[in-house]
Batch of 2 targets.
Target 1
Amino acid sequence: MISELAPTRELTLIALHGYGLQQLGVTHGELIETPAAAYPWTARWAQALHDACPQADGLIWMSRRFTGPRALMLWQGKGRVQAGDLVMKVPARPLWEGSGRELALKVAKRAKIAMVG
């Protein structure tokens, strides 16, 4: 499923790009461009940032493959993002049919990924 959400308030995000990474003392390559085998290590980074910054709503970074748009992870819970903090701008659509499938096919074609089935 895919949908589009919008915040109803200003979100406090930890930047894992630019000066944010510089302040942490790591590079984009060290934290973001890691192989799958390093995911437990990057998950520990996320947990440490979650624990160290109770006022933060989540993380924002540039993907290793698509460095233009930002990737976002939000944390839910006390003092974090609550249900009313986000509103649905575009209703959820299944990716296996209709306009959701059309979007998936378009993205796959741009990435030169063959969709089967």
Note: Residues 2-89 form one domain.
Target 2
Amino acid sequence: MKATLSLLAIVVAFAALGQVGWATVKVGAPAPAFTATDNKGQSHSLADFKGKWVVLEWHNEGCPYVRKHYGSGNMQKLQKEWTARGVVWLSVISSAPGKQGYQTAEQSQAYQAQQNASPTAVLLDPEGTVGQLYAAKTTPHMFVIDPNGVLMYDGAIDDRPTTDLADVDGATNYVVAALKAGMAGQTVATPVSRPYGCSVKYAQ
């Protein structure tokens, strides 16, 4: 009996260790505060964008689900459209060194130019600090934060969890829907959805 209890204690302890650094994010509550450096060496804090809508987009250039939205031009179109309307769009790379999707600052800049992407900034998060704050699970995993710093949406980019470029057309885009509803002072119809894509390639 004692051996069984000891084994259980060890399992619980390791489970707890696995959760260290991870936060619980909740739609309707304040979005976790963060500070991160972008691929141009500039520091950004969520507090810097108070009074603005903010979109967080978890990114991994090697992920076929990400390539679906970049290869079709969908993500770039969304970035251009919404940043033109004053939205802060932050692409976040939480891949650890040696893992799929990891990019140095120089590699990230070259890649963004090649993709003709135009987020407000690309945040480099190789230690997974920001990713763990938001419990980001997949690439892409999308979040929408309102001007008061409240999390309004957490989940997938749309309702078609495939790698098929043709599925972009006709999909219900949850991020767009959340932004439109929020800006109109309306309730977001789908505030939470299950994110789809490749797992975020954290260090552990």
Note: The domain at 23-199 is CATH 3.40.30.10 (Glutaredoxin).
